[in-house]
Amino acid sequence: QVHLVESGGGLVQPGGSLRLSCAASGSFASIYKMGWYRQGPGKQRELVATIIESGYQDFADSVKGRFTISRENGKDTVYLKMNGLKPKQTAVYYCNVQARINWWSSITDYSGQGGRVTVSS
Q: How far apart are CA 78 and CA 76, in angstroms?
């Protein structure tokens, strides 16, 4: 199984920056994709950014150019640096990992408990 530990959320003023981190641990063969989703008040969960093991990255249009995602494969850790935060980006941010428990098993999704990011003056 995969256990995810998230950190880095909190309160930030509009235009400010935060860095989220998510470390995966447990017993698994490999991690294919790591990333972040968010769910704002009264909204559905949506993609923020993902990065696969080759380094290919995908971003929501609303964060392109302001958010960056990086991954430390040796530490099975993913980081999301958020710049220029806006109040409408207040949400609970969830780490998501797609991993194989064994080399022959299918890829399974795992999500963290989420960390709240509040953008407010």
A: 7
User: What pLDDT, in 10s, does the model give residues 39-95?
Assistant: 999 999 999 999 998 999 999 999 999 999 999 878 899 999 999 999 999 999 999
Three-state DSSP class for residue 107: coil
Token couple for 84 = 């220029």
DSSP string, 41-71: TT---EEEEEEETT--EEE-GGGTTTEEEEE
How far apart are alpha carbons 59 and 82 in whole angstroms? Answer: 12
Q: 9 φ, ψ to 5°?
A: -75, 175
Residue with tokens 């409408």: 88
Residue 111: both structure tokens together = 């999500």
